[in-house]
Design goal:
heterodimer, A: mainly alpha, flat, B: alpha/beta, six-stranded mixed beta sheet, four-stranded antiparallel beta sheet, 10 helices
C-alpha cells in the first residue's frame, strides 16, 4: 500500500525548497514578429485609406441600395436558412435511412447521396431553373397513372386534387432552395451518419433496456449526442452555403446580392468597389454565423467536459 | 396440456418469475450458450458466476432480448420473451412489442451507460416520461425519491461526467428502478469501478434485495454472492456447471471447474 508514503511531510522544515520563483523563458522572436506584423498592418491601413480605387463612399452607397439589401436579406440570408433547413432535416433522415436495417431505405439513401454529390451546384441550379420543361401540364397531386386507370375502367375526367404550375415552381428562389437544399442534404447525410455512428452502442442499449421504441431511442438518446459531432461541420456547411447562394444566378435568381451589386457596378463603371462591397457583406454574415455556431456547440456539448472521458473518472467531485 | 404441447418445453403452472429452458445462442458459429436452464422465483437473488467468456453476460442480455436466442425459451412472468406462441408455432415479435416486454425488466450495465447529455434526475425521469407517458412533474418527483434512496438526492442536477463511477452506477440503478420493474438484471455492475467505490454500489443492491426485488446479478464479488444471493449459479463454457445455495456452491463446490475458478479468484483477491 502506497498511501502511507504519500503523506506530505511537515512544511516547517527549513531546508526544504519552497515556492518557485524562476526567470521565465524569453521570447525575442515574438517581439520581432510583432514588429514585422505592425509594419504590414500599417501598410494595409494606409492602402485602405489612401488608395482612391477603394472609393469608400461608393462602396457604402452601393451597399445601401434597396435592391442590394433585398438581395442580401432574401437571396443570401433567407435562401441560406431555408436550404440549410431542407439540408439538415433531409440529411438526418437520409442518415437514419442509410443506417436502418431495411435494405430498400438504405439503398435509396445511398442513391440519393450518390446522385446529388455528383452534380456541381452551379449545374444543379441551372438544371433546376429549366426543370419546368419536364412538366408542361404542371405537377399534380392525386392518383398515380390516373389517366390509364380511368381509360381502362372506361370512365372520364381525372383524379387529381391539386395542380402546381411547374414553370412557376422551378423559377427563382424556390428552385434555388430546392436545388441547394437537396444538394446539401446529400452532404449532411454523411455528416449526420458520422455523428450517429460516433455515439457509443451502450447508449442505445440502455435506452432499449428501458423499453424505449427505436424511434424514441434515436430522437431522445442517440441524435442529441450525435449533434455534438454534427454541429461543427454543419456550421462549416452553413458558411459554405452562404457563399454558394451567389450561384443562384444560374437559376437565374436576379434578386441575388452579387448580381444586384454588379449591375450597379456596371452602370457606374466601378468594378472594384463592388467586389469590396460584396466582401464586406459576406464577412459580416459569416461573423454572425460563427457566433451562432459557438452557442449551438455549447448547447449540445452540455454534459461533456472538454476533456470528456465518458465514464469512471470523478471530475473534481470526489467519491461518495 | 395436449400431447403436442408436452413435447415442447412448456411453461409450468406454478410459475417462477424467470423460467429459462435449454437456451442456446451462437455468434458466428461460436456457440456461447449451450442449453442453459434457469428458474428464478419472485423475490429471489441469483448470482451468476464464472470465468470471462463463460456466457454469463450473454445469457443476461438474452433475458431482456438485447440478444435474440437461437434455441430454447425464456419466460418472464409468464410472457415468452421475443416471440408469440400461437398453437405451437412461434412468431417473432415486432420491435415495439419487444420494447413493451423490456419495460418490466430493469438493467444495469458494467459501463453505467448513463445518458451523458441529461442530468442525473433527467436520466431517471426519462423513461417514465417518454415510455410511460407520465407527466414531467410526477416523473421528476419520483426520480427525486429514487435518487434519495440511492443516496444521491443532492446530486440531481449533476451531469454524469461530474459524478464518480460509483455515483454514476447508483444513478443507473435509480434509472432502472424508475420503470418499477419486476426484475432487475445487473451486468457486472462493479467491475468498472475503482475498488474504493465498489462498496457504495453493493450497499444499494443489498438494500434492493432486502426490499424483495428479484435480481439476477453477474458478478465477481464473492462476498456479495455469499451474503445476498439465494442461489449461486456457476457457469463455464456456455453451460451451468453447478448451482445451489451460496454456502454449498462457494463453500463446498462439487465440480473441479468450480473449485479451480474459486481458488483462482481467492488468490487474486489476496494478492492483487
Amino acid at each position: 500500500m502506497s498511501t502511507d508514503t504519500d503523506i506530505r511531510p511537515a512544511a516547517s522544515d527549513a531546508d526544504r525548497p519552497g515556492a518557485i520563483k524562476a526567470v521565465p523563458v524569453r521570447h525575442p522572436g515574438r517581439w520581432v514578429a510583432i514588429a514585422i506584423i505592425a509594419v504590414l498592418v500599417a501598410m494595409l491601413v494606409h492602402l485602405l485609406v489612401t488608395n482612391k480605387a477603394f472609393d469608400w463612399d461608393f462602396v457604402f452607397q452601393a451597399m445601401n441600395q434597396k435592391p442590394v439589401i433585398n438581395g442580401f436579406l432574401k437571396g443570401t440570408l433567407l435562401v441560406t436558412a431555408l436550404s440549410m433547413v431542407v439540408g439538415v432535416v433531409g440529411g438526418v433522415i437520409l442518415a437514419v435511412m442509410r443506417l436502418s436495417d431495411n435494405p430498400i431505405l438504405s439503398g435509396v439513401a445511398w442513391v440519393f447521396t450518390w446522385f446529388f454529390r455528383s452534380i456541381p451546384r452551379y449545374i444543379l441550379l441551372f438544371t433546376m431553373g429549366t426543370l419546368g420543361i419536364l412538366f408542361q401540364q404542371g405537377i399534380s397531386f392525386g392518383v398515380p397513372f390516373d389517366w390509364k386507370i380511368i381509360d381502362w375502367l372506361g370512365l372520364s375526367g381525372d383524379w387529381r386534387f391539386y395542380t402546381l404550375d411547374a414553370n412557376q415552381l422551378f423559377t427563382g428562389l424556390v428552385a434555388g432552395v430546392i436545388g441547394l437544399g437537396l444538394s446539401e442534404a446529400a452532404y449532411m447525410a454523411e455528416i449526420a451518419r458520422a455523428g450517429i455512428l460516433s455515439v457509443d452502442k451502450g447508449q442505445a442499449e440502455a435506452a432499449q433496456a428501458l423499453g424505449m421504441s427505436s424511434g424514441k431511442v434515436m430522437r431522445r438518446v442517440v441524435l442529441p449526442q450525435a449533434m455534438r459531432v454534427i454541429v461543427p461541420p454543419t456550421g462549416n456547411e452553413t458558411i459554405a452555403m452562404l457563399k454558394d447562394t451567389s450561384l443562384l444566378l444560374a437559376v437565374p435568381v436576379l434578386g441575388e446580392l452579387f448580381y444586384q451589386l454588379q449591375s450597379i457596378g456596371s452602370t457606374y463603371y466601378k468594378t472594384f468597389p463592388i467586389a469590396v462591397a460584396a466582401t464586406l457583406y459576406y464577412l459580416a454574415a459569416t461573423s454572425v454565423l460563427m457566433v451562432g455556431q459557438y452557442f449551438l456547440e455549447r448547447h449540445f456539448g452540455r454534459g461533456f467536459g472538454t476533456q470528456a472521458p465518458r465514464a469512471a473518472r470523478p471530475a473534481g467531485a470526489g467519491g461518495a | 396440456m395436449t400431447a403436442a404441447a408436452a413435447a415442447e418445453p412448456a411453461q409450468p403452472v406454478a410459475q417462477p418469475l424467470v423460467h429459462a429452458v435449454n437456451v442456446t445462442k451462437s455468434f458466428h458459429h461460436n456457440e456461447v450458450l449451450k442449453g442453459i436452464d434457469l428458474d428464478v422465483d419472485r423475490g429471489q437473488v441469483v448470482c451468476l458466476l464464472g470465468p470471462s467468456g463463460s456466457g454469463k453476460t450473454t445469457f443476461l442480455r438474452c433475458i431482456n432480448q438485447l440478444e435474440s436466442i437461437d434455441g430454447g425459451r425464456i419466460w418472464v412472468d409468464g410472457d415468452l420473451m421475443g416471440y408469440a406462441d400461437r398453437d405451437g408455432k412461434l412468431y417473432r415479435l415486432k420491435n415495439k412489442e419487444i420494447a413493451a416486454q423490456r419495460r418490466e425488466i430493469g438493467m444495469v450495465f458494467q459501463r453505467f451507460n448513463l445518458f451523458p447529455h441529461m442530468t442525473a434526475i433527467g436520466n431517471v425521469a426519462e423513461a417514465p416520461i417518454q415510455v410511460r407517458g407520465e407527466s414531467k412533474k410526477t416523473a421528476r418527483a419520483r426520480a427525486q425519491e429514487l435518487l434519495d434512496r440511492v443516496g444521491l438526492g443532492d446530486r440531481c442536477t449533476s451531469y454524469p461526467a461530474q459524478l464518480s463511477g460509483g455515483q454514476q452506477q447508483r444513478v443507473a440503478i435509480a434509472r432502472a428502478l424508475a420503470m418499477q420493474p419486476k426484475l432487475m438484471l445487473f451486468d457486472e455492475p462493479t467491475s468498472a469501478l475503482d475498488p474504493e467505490l465498489v462498496g457504495e454500489v453493493l450497499a444499494v443492491m443489498r438494500e434492493l434485495a432486502e426490499d424483495g426485488m428479484t435480481m439476477i446479478v453477474v458478478t465477481h464479488e464473492m462476498e456479495f454472492a455469499r451474503e445476498v444471493a439465494d442461489t449461486v449459479v456457476f457457469m463455464d463454457a456456455g453451460v451451468v456447471v453447478e448451482s445451489g445455495r451460496p454456502a454449498d456452491v462457494l463453500g463446498n463446490p462439487q465440480h473441479q471447474r468450480t473449485k479451480t475458478f474459486l481458488t483462482r479468484l481467492r488468490s487474486e483477491h489476496e494478492h492483487p
